């Protein structure tokens, strides 16, 4: 475990971010490998079906990830303030209530899989494969929730290495099973491999916590719901879940716009979405690191370290994105050929055009993610939600307005415009926070002088 309330801010941020980064990259890797194998071994129609189903599943997945994100802020705050009994009660409350909610969500989504796919303009020829993939992954949604809460709890106490090791093992299992199952079972094999890997990751995290992390170890008598903590957890987690669902509903609506362009565009968009996800993971990891750092120092009442954490997070993100732009410009075609055969020239050309524009836009995500982590760590979940509500409508409206004339390049214009507006809003909110903190500290100094 790592206490982030003292010591060098850059060093702590770097050592905590690297395992988070590798963990997120592994999550993208096994998703990407599944798409590569489906595209190569089954064909572009199967790849398009998996892409559409994956967009629907991501909405559900990030609702449950939002639940764990809200709880993780409280985990880190209680750990930073050394309130270990509260930490354990919060852990139990988040686990039990999160699993109950996820079971209900999964049942509803499983029943409505077909209508949802038609709602996003999925071609009828792709519906059978897309529905099969979606229902299998929905059946494993509880494992997704369990792993994310367990991993969030470990990270909140400064342990980002164990989730990394666990995910490395489960990713290897996923890749191996996908390779074995996708040829005889098609898209069902890819979905089943993902569910089995997620279940393994959740089980390994649970075993490790029960054996090695006393502040999180739960005995049967500890499995209770603290309703006072539940109210606070719901206030954080519900906003985080809404924010994540709005974000991925936006992605789903954009997928609907892409689906009107035909199978080539759908296959290209699935490929570039996977590449985007891989490329943007370090920025997301930095946001998570900023969130944990800020929450621990909030619990310890150290505002100067809170601001320093944000500045270091932004700087690290911008350095990474500069390197990413160079890599993307050089290797864009090679990345597309991971997913598509060389003869799929129309799909490859659409993807290349998209990636070469996006290379210049990635730097904005470093700023967005750092600010999102900052406000999440402060418990200001409303700001993170509002920032998403600023960005997503702009992205969706511009995508639908321009996709018919610009193809996939409309999406780069839409995303860039949304990120610009999001950054402007976050800077405004940061200035309000800084001014409010300054006023509080001045009142405290005056009060101290009065007593003296």
How are the elements arranged and paired?
Layout: H1 9-41, H2 44-80, H3 84-111, H4 113-119, H5 127-139, H6 141-156, H7 161-185, H8 187-212, H9 227-259, H10 263-299, H11 303-339, H12 345-358, H13 362-377, H14 381-406, H15 409-451
Helix pairs in contact: 1-2, 1-7, 1-8, 1-10, 1-11, 2-3, 2-5, 2-6, 2-9, 2-10, 3-5, 3-6, 3-9, 4-5, 5-8, 6-8, 7-8, 9-14, 10-11, 10-12, 10-13, 11-12, 11-13, 12-15, 13-14, 13-15, 14-15
Number of domains: 1
Shape: globular
For the largest beta-sheet, the strand count, sense and barrel status come to:
none
Structural class: mainly alpha
Contiguous uncertain segments of 5+ residues: none
Q: What is the C-alpha radius of gyration, as a whole number of Å?
A: 22 Å
The average pLDDT value, as a whole number, equals 84
Distance between the terminal alpha carbons, to the nearest Å? 40 Å
Number of helices: 15
What proportion of the residues is helical, as a percent range? over 70%
* Annotation, overall tally of beta strands: 0
Instruction: Give the ordered list of helices and strands.
Output: HHHHHHHHHHHHHHH
What fraction of the residues are assigned to beta strands by DSSP?
under 5%
What report would you give on this structure?
The chain is an all-alpha fold and 452 residues long. It has one domain (9-451). Helices cover 87% and strands 0% of the residues. It is built from 15 helices and no strands. Helix 1 runs parallel beside helix 11. The longest helix is centred in the last third of the chain and has 43 residues, at 409-451. It is globular. The two termini are 40 Å apart.
């Amino acid at each position: 475990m790592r206490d982030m309330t003292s010591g060098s801010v850059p060093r702590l941020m770097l050592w905590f971010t690297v395992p988070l980064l590798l963990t997120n990259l592994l999550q993208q890797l096994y998703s990407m490998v599944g798409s590569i194998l489906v595209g190569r071994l089954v064909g572009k129609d199967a790849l398009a079906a998996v892409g559409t189903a994956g967009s629907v599943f991501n909405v559900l997945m990030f609702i449950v990830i939002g639940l764990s994100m809200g709880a993780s802020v409280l985990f880190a705050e209680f750990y930073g303030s050394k309130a270990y009994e509260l930490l354990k009660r919060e852990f139990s409350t988040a686990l039990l209530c999160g699993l109950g909610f996820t079971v209900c969500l999964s049942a509803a989504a499983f029943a409505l899989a077909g209508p949802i796919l038609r709602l996003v303009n999925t071609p009828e020829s792709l519906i059978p494969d897309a529905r099969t993939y979606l229902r299998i992954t929905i059946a494993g949604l509880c494992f997704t929730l369990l792993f994310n809460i367990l991993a969030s709890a470990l990270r909140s106490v400064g342990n980002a290495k164990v989730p990394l090791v666990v995910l490395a093992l489960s990713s290897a299992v996923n890749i191996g099973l996908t390779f074995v199952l996708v040829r005889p079972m098609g898209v069902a094999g890819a979905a089943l491999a993902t569910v089995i890997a997620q279940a393994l990751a959740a089980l390994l995290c649970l075993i490790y916590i029960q054996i090695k992390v006393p502040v999180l170890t739960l005995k049967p008598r500890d499995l209770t719901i603290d309703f006072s903590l539940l109210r606070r957890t719901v206030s954080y987690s519900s906003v985080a879940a809404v924010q994540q669902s709005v974000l991925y509903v936006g992605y789903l609506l954009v997928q609907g716009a892409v689906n009107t362009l035909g199978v080539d565009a759908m296959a290209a968009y699935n490929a570039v979405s996977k590449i985007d996800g891989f490329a943007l993971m370090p920025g997301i990891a930095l946001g998570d690191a900023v969130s944990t750092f800020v929450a621990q120092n909030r619990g310890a009442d150290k505002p100067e370290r809170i601001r320093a954490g944000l500045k270091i997070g932004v700087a690290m993100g911008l350095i990474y994105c500069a390197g990413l732009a160079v890599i993307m410009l050089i290797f864009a075609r090679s990345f597309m050929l991971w997913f598509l055969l060389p003869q799929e020239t129309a799909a490859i050309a659409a993807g290349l055009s998209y990636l070469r524009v996006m290379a210049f836009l990635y730097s904005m995500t470093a700023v967005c993610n750092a600010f999102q982590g900052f406000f999440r760590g402060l418990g200001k979940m409303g700001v993170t939600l509002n920032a998403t509500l600023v960005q997503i409508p702009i992205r969706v409206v511009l995508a639908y307005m321009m996709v018919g004339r610009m193809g996939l390049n409309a999406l780069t214009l839409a995303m860039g415009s949304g990120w610009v507006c999001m950054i402007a809003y976050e800077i405004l909110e940061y200035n309000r926070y800084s001014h409010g903190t300054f006023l509080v500290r001045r009142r405290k100094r005056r009060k101290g002088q009065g007593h003296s």
